[in-house]
Amino acid sequence: MVRRIQESINDIRKELSALVEIKRDNRKAQNVKRTRLLKKYNLEKKEDLDQVIEELKQKVSAKTQLLSRYRKRQNQYYQRSCLGQIVRNFITVSGRHVPM
User: Fold this and answer.
1) pTM summary value
2) What CA–CA distance (Å, rounded) separates 79 from 52?
3) How far apart are CA 37 and CA 33, in angstroms?
4) Contact present, 5 and 67 (Cβ < 8 Å)
5) pLDDT digit string (tens) for 54-95?
6) Sign of CA dihedral 58, 62, 68, 71
7) 19-48, pLDDT tens digit by residue?
8) What burial letters (b/e) apply to 5-31, b meaning 16+ CB within 10 Å?
9) What is the b/e burial string over 59-98, where b = at least 16 CB atoms within 10 angstroms of the residue's CB?
10) What whole-number distance in Å separates Cα of residue 39 and Cα of residue 32?
11) Helical (H) or strand (E) element with 52
12) How many CB atoms lie within 10 A of CB 37?
């Protein structure tokens, strides 16, 4: 899951970078890549380009927050499972029988 989200973030950042280069009118952006992105986002005016760049920035931010929440939840799950194992071990060592 983490790898998939990270790959998605990287793809969006790559497109964002290319669109910013197009906005700067930098000719380093290859024509094939340039035409593919312009066609993908249906860009005809500079205002449209600014809007798409802003949307991609927001997508990167949202996916980064999603990744952060996922990692936090994963860590919490791991800690709870470790705690449960410690409690079970303590109960068996102490000889008490506590229903769970």
Assistant:
1) 0.69
2) 41
3) 6
4) yes
5) 999 999 999 999 999 999 999 998 888 888 888 878 777 777
6) negative
7) 988 888 766 656 778 888 888 888 877 778
8) eeeebeebeebbebbebbeeeeeebee
9) bbeebeeebeeeeeeeeeeeeeeeeeeeeeeeeeeeeeee
10) 11
11) helix 46-94
12) 18
Tokens found for residue 82: 């470790």
Angle at 68 between CA 66 and CA 69, to 5 degrees: 65
- Please give the structure tokens belonging to residue 59: 């997508």
**24 phi/psi in degrees, rounded to 5:** -75, -5
Is the separation of the CB atoms in 37 and 74 below 8 Å? no
What tokens were used for 7?
């790959």
Q: Are the CB atoms for 54 and 23 separated by under 8 Å?
A: no
